[in-house]
Amino acid sequence: MVSAENRIKEIALACGASAAGVAPAAELVEFKRFSEAAAAVPPGLAYLNREPLRRKNIKNWFPAAEAVLVCSFRYWEPGMNYAEELAKTGGAAAFLERTGRKVKQPELLAAPGAKISRYALSRDYHLTVKEKLSAALEAIKKEFPGAEGKTFCDTSPVLEKELARLAGLGFRGKNTLLVSWESGSYLFIGGIALNLKLKPDTPAADSCGSCELCVKACPTGALKDGALDAGLCLSYWTTQAKEKIPAALAAKASGYAYGCDLCQEACPWGR
């Protein structure tokens, strides 16, 4: 007989998730590290400091939560060629405008050979992931009478990466991203806070070891001691900053006009 936990994970996979796991709905030790980092974020990330305690425990966001179904969605497949995928967009500037992305640094976009991060070479992931999670929630409600839940993906006050680690979906890499043994860090994370009592999966252990290829690959030195200095991150400056990128950082953009993949490209797990 299939357990409730495994059946719910099967539903998530059938609705489009690449992997699924269960994390406890409880207070997160990781919150202390998050709150310390959030206190020093640049203006474009000021929203991280709104109602910070809601992130400490998912019950503060969805009081009925008893467990969290956490899902990863792979957006880059082995064998895909970046140059070919970028060419399919018809050009970086036109593609970003067509898909409704806000360009923060137009001068970088105007440069010949402007590049877009892999995660943005498709429809807005917030919409796609939320649709898949909503379908999964409806299926769970049909199969488990009395089930209720609330979906999240990036824009909710939820610490997705830590919940994903607790759900066994991967470990936190030195590039601060969730790293899966199967998919590297080319993943979107989303989930559903559920009012069902489910057995949590075993949290993932750190697997970076002594490797620091991602740290060395960052041209601005934004990665240090497992933390990200957003004020030095090219992805921050090209997707969220409200100010013009400093000339010293723009000179190190490596052609990226929207996002940056350099630390992920360097990661052995992503290859």
Quick tags:
single chain; 271 residues; alpha+beta; 2 domains; two-stranded parallel sheet; 11 helices; 10 strands
Task: Describe the structure concisely for a colleague.
By secondary structure, the chain is an alpha+beta fold.
Could you explain how this protein is built, in words?
It contains eleven helices and ten strands. By secondary structure, the chain is α+β, with helices and mostly antiparallel strands. The chain folds into two domains: 4-75 and 123-194, no CATH class; 82-121 and 210-270, no CATH class. The chain has a four-stranded antiparallel β-sheet with strand order 1-2-7-4, sandwiched between helices. The chain has a two-stranded parallel sheet with strand order 3-10. β5 (171-172) and β6 (178-179) form a beta hairpin. α1 (4-14) packs across α6 (125-143). The radius of gyration is 19 Å and the shape is globular. The model has no long low-confidence stretch (mean pLDDT 94).
- Count of helical stretches: 11
Q: Ranges with pLDDT <50 over ≥5 residues?
A: none
From the N-terminal CA to the C-terminal CA, the straight-line distance is: 37 Å
Number-wise, the strands total 10
Estimate nothing, just give the exact number of structural domains: 2
Shape annotation: globular
Write down the overall mean pLDDT. Answer: 94
Helix content: 25-40%
- The gyration radius over C-alpha positions equals 19 Å
**Proportion of β residues?**
5-15%
Q: What structural category characterises the helix and strand content? A: alpha+beta
